[in-house]
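In the design runs reported in the main text, the only information available to the sequence generator was the tokenized backbone. The following block is the verbatim input for one such run; it is reproduced so that readers can re-run the procedure and compare outputs position by position.
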């Protein structure tokens, strides 16, 4: 073949390929065309094999031309491919029917656990009275949990049946009171602290759980009296349960307070007339409290002649049960969403 013949052949091949590319309607058809013209065994390659007859001067001319054709065809194939893709997308969008009247997907909203909520509410009331929130360790030593709180060595609370011991003298705290001692060790009066947290006791029935929550509070300064304790707790009960409620202080005993009291409030359900909630007594026991025993101050080197203070503690579960009318403490820990969603 002469140079002119090969040129013509290549140009005809190009025209033919361009026409075919334009006619192809999907990407697999396009691939067939690509292989047919540009593949290793394709028509363009076949033409180039017949260059043997050409002179040294003529070969580069054909080499250049065939490269140009190759590039041109590759570009046309790519642009046709994009065209087909765009067409396909346009068609599927046109076929896509969106029903705007369908209800959307509703995401379920989480809620704060009733125990956390009540705990936060209790802390908020005391925050307004300028009590600072402090937390302490749940794993305690016998010293902080019992000894420094004036529990005698033979006190029944130390018994294996009440306390979870981890090892000798190390235990899960049975109350939040150890934090009192920890704060007193670090801080000189005045101290005005509220301590929320988990506590552990060997106890389980409808109103007791081996793990439960307490909020403990204490105030130490010069000249603090039982009247201050009554004032603070009466205000707390009114804020938490209702302005109209009466409070009652009954003598009691705790190793770390003297004198000690159980604090009752008049029943919010029957206003004192007697009902199921108050077991017909008209009163509901809500708190334990008292003046901090001078023996506790001696452990932390506070001068009991100079300082006096009060302490009080309450069970968060008990308050939540009263507030929401829940009769089984285990409901708080079962993570049943039907229960939790009510709060
Ligand atoms: Zn009642």
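Verbatim output:
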């Amino acid at each position: 073949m002469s140079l002119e013949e090969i040129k013509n052949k290549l140009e005809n091949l190009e025209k033919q390929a361009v026409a075919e590319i334009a006619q192809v309607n999907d990407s697999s058809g396009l691939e067939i065309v690509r292989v047919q013209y540009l593949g290793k065994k394709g028509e363009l390659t076949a033409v180039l094999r017949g260059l043997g007859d050409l002179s040294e001067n003529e070969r580069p001319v054909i080499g250049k031309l065939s490269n140009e054709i190759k590039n041109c065809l590759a570009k046309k194939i790519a642009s046709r491919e994009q065209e087909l893709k765009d067409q396909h997308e346009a068609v599927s969008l046109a076929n896509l029917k969106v029903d705007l009247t369908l209800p959307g997907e509703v995401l379920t909203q989480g809620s704060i656990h009733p125990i956390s909520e009540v705990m936060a509410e209790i802390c908020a009331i005391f925050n307004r009275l300028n009590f600072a929130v402090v937390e302490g360790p749940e794993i305690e030593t016998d010293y902080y949990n019992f000894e420094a709180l004036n529990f005698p060595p033979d006190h029944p609370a130390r018994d294996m049946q009440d306390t979870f011991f981890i090892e000798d003298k190390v235990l899960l705290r049975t109350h939040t009171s150890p934090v009192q001692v920890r704060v007193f060790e670090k801080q000189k009066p005045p101290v005005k602290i509220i301590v929320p947290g988990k506590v552990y006791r060997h106890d389980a029935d409808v109103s007791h759980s081996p793990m439960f929550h307490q909020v403990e509070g204490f105030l130490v300064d010069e000249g603090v009296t039982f009247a201050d304790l009554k004032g603070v707790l009466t205000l707390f009960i009114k804020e938490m349960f209702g302005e109209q409620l009466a409070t009652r202080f009954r003598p009691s005993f705790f190793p770390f307070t003297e004198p000690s009291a159980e604090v009752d409030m008049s029943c919010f359900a029957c206003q004192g007339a007697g009902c199921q909630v108050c077991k017909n007594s008209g009163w509901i026991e809500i708190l334990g409290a008292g003046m901090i025993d001078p023996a506790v101050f001696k452990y932390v080197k506070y001068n009991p002649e100079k300082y006096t203070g009060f302490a009080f503690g309450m069970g968060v579960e008990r308050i939540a049960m009263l507030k929401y009318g829940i009769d089984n403490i285990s409901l708080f820990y079962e993570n049943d969403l039907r229960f939790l969603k009510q709060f």
